[in-house]
Amino acid sequence: MIQADVFCISNPMDPLSKQKCVMIIAGEVSGDLHGSKLVSAMRKRDNALFFCGIGGQALKDAGVKILVDASELSVVGITEAFAKTPSLLKGMAVAKKTLKTLHPDLLILIDFPDFNLHIAGAAKKLGIPVLYYISPQVWAWRPGRVKKIRKVVDRVAVILPFEEKFFRKHQIQATFVGHPLLDTHLFLEGSSIAKNTEDIPVVGLLPGSRDREIAKLLPVMLQSARILLERDKNMKFIVSVAPSIKRKFVETIVEEHRGEYDFELVSDTVENVL
Fold first, then answer.
1. CB burial readout 61-73, b (16+ within 10 A) else e
2. Nearest to 63 by CA among 95, 29, 30, 37
3. Residue 79: pLDDT band by 50, 70, 90 thresholds?
4. How many domains would you assign to the chain?
């Protein structure tokens, strides 16, 4: 379970005069989902907390005032990054302005490192505490970023056990809080998959959460699925439709590439497929 005490706010300079404010930034669908669970966990400790920031539908449903929709910022690859440069710059400008005008008691950053580390630097200059939840995987690639994290982040909440030791070795305060997927109920009562009593293999197709990657990956996945079905028709394929994606978009791709076979679409979160 999420250790919400790691995220609690302490502001001895102003304990009673105003409602505590938390700014949260989740630039991708996965971060939006994990962030919504974090908000719920923090609200159980203090229901008066006010949340605002950058995110998607999950954070909005959790009661966060969304200043910029994360779908405007999420990118795959350098070409898409160039295409979305105006939106990314606008998002940064909104985030920085909010930090200056609202001066939140805490800034929580979730993944999305290139954008978030830039905002962390702005918050640091304003004296706003910065907590990074689901940190960049600097132990795997671009390790030089650890210096930037040490400079602009006050504490890192990590989801893999070994990450705590890694960051502490680099003089960064880190706490292992557990992986958010462990709080997920993988088999949902009432779903079409949970009701499946047929003794046949069920394969989930997870093409992603962005239009461009789905357009590129899903046709290949469907082609692979058709090859498997030609060998063994006693299989069932489920296609995940992320909350950030219009169902019609996925339906069109499936219709074009399904051949003679049927594929079930499952909307909302990947949990409904798993």
1. ebebebbbbbbeb
2. 37
3. very low
4. 2
Altogether, the residues listed in the chain come to a count of 274
Backbone angles phi, psi at 130, to 5 degrees: -120, 125
Alpha-carbon distance of 17 to 207, in angstroms, equals: 48
- pTM, whole model, 2 decimals? 0.72
Residue 210 vs residue 83, higher pLDDT: 210
CA distance 69 to 84: 13
In a domain, 82, yes or no: yes
- Nearest CA to 179 among 162, 198, 201, 204? 162
Co-location of 118 and 150 in the same domain? yes
Residues 127 and 245 in one domain: no
Domain-embedded: residue 26 = yes
Where is 110: in which H helix or E strand? Answer: strand 106-110
Collapse the DSSP code of 167 into the 3-class scheme (helix H, G, I; strand E, B; otherwise coil) and give the result: helix
Structural domain span for residue 57: 21-182
Place of tokens 């996965």: 30
On average, the pLDDT of the chain sits at: 84
Q: Are 174 and 208 in a shared domain?
A: no
Residue 61 shares a structural domain with residue 170: yes
Residues 6+ apart with CB under 8 A from 54: 24, 25, 26, 27, 66, 67, 68, 69, 70, 73, 91, 94, 95
252 and 217 in one domain? yes
197 in any annotated domain: no
Which domain CATH number covers 40? Answer: 3.40.50.2000
pLDDT at 20 over 60: yes
